Amino acid sequence: MNRRKFMKVAGLAAVVPASSASATSSQTNNILQSADPLDPIDLGTGPSLTNEQLTERLRLLAQKNDRMDLQRIGKSAGRRDPIWEVQIGDGDTSIHIINQIHGDEPFGTEALMSIFRRLVDGNSRLVDSILDNLSLTVIPRANPDGAMYTEDENDDGEEQRLGLRQNIQSWNSNHSHQRPYYHVEEFPGDERGGYDPNRDFNIKPDFVSTVDDTPDMWQTDDDGEPTGVLEMERDGHTLEESGVQATPAVEAITRSFLNADPDYAKTIHSQGLPLDPETGEVTILSVMAPYGPMYAEEAPFGDPEEDATADFVNPFLDQETSDRGIRLNELCAQALEEYAGPWSAFETGTRFGYTTLWGSYLDTLCPQTDAAGMLYELPGQTDSVGDRAYYMKVEATRVALLESFTQLAQDPSLTQTGIEVDDYFDRPLAEGSYEEGRGASDVS
Ligand SMILES: [Zn+2]
């Protein structure tokens, strides 16, 4: 069954209220509003800024004063729209953040804009502390193609801006010896198809397509047919499903990351609609830290006795880096719960089950600089649930980011937080899905 069509029929009764795209933002944000599960759902990106609007607002902010530096670090593959990098602060602790590498996951963009405005305009001890102690390097929209993707989803002659996970970019044999498994050949709204950029990274930052991906590194099935799975060898480990770095976004992000030399790396996403196993409600966020083999016993999707280490934990992350990442993730989850108070929707923070993904930003880039990593997952992509609870998701992102900046400015190693590694592993794993029959963690 078509996923989108199913969502329209089934509706969503919990976090996301029934409302149409024409509803006001306050209605859209009112999670207490009763919802009829049979109400139709309008899909789309709603109030999310267009690429043009985002560019205009970033430029205005950067022109305002010298606290913020704005650079165009690349162009998207299909639309040739700018990929922007924002730098704020000149402190010793470097933090690299990417947002919306999946174009149908826009909620962090507005949160980041809100934080930029506060840091550029604000005069307070908190702002001073962040500017003095942190160096923030932020890519607010890593996938401008996906952010603007439109499709006549209802066949009524009207294009809707739905958002898209991938970029818009044809595959060709100059990119790699096989078409990678994460390239989709064609979309209803664009016959060029596109890559999932968060599967396109490679552990080797200077990886060159068709030079470094020799044919023997590509898997074939039992019939000798290509599977699109590239294997990289590194320090005795086989890294399956590595990316080929064919997308301009990944090239730009990798360069930005290495220049920033970060101590921390964060990536903001949306997942399906997984549940908090304790409350049965859709979780408002899930956090995930990449970690090394010292926590193999805690890894939810691997068996240390049977599976290769690199299949489920990152062998290139040491104890200290792993612990910082775990504390950072737990800090953000706890901050949101404390901030929310009686707003119960914020008290359903879960843990996103970690397993290695050798084409992803965190697993490939964190080891380059011993960066502690964080994946921040909000519920629901715009092409499956529309913009419902938009401002709640924006706020959830804003609070967690700002709280982590506040703490890191005072305590760069996060050793004074009182947070223990066990606190993170005690956090319930997101499980199930609001939509019956659909995995919670398959798309994020
Ligand atoms: Zn994502």
UniProtKB/TrEMBL annotation:
The keyword Zinc-finger does not apply. Keywords: Carboxypeptidase, Hydrolase, Metalloprotease, Plasmid, Protease, Zinc. This is Putative carboxypeptidase. One of its GO terms (molecular function) is metallocarboxypeptidase activity. GO terms for cellular component: extracellular space. One of its GO terms (biological process) is proteolysis. Residues 18-38 are annotated as: Disordered. The lineage of its organism: Archaea, Methanobacteriati, Methanobacteriota, Stenosarchaea group, Halobacteria. The keyword Hydrolase applies. Belongs to the peptidase M14 family. Its cofactor is Zn(2+). Pfam families: Peptidase_M14. Residues 60-204 form the Peptidase M14 domain.
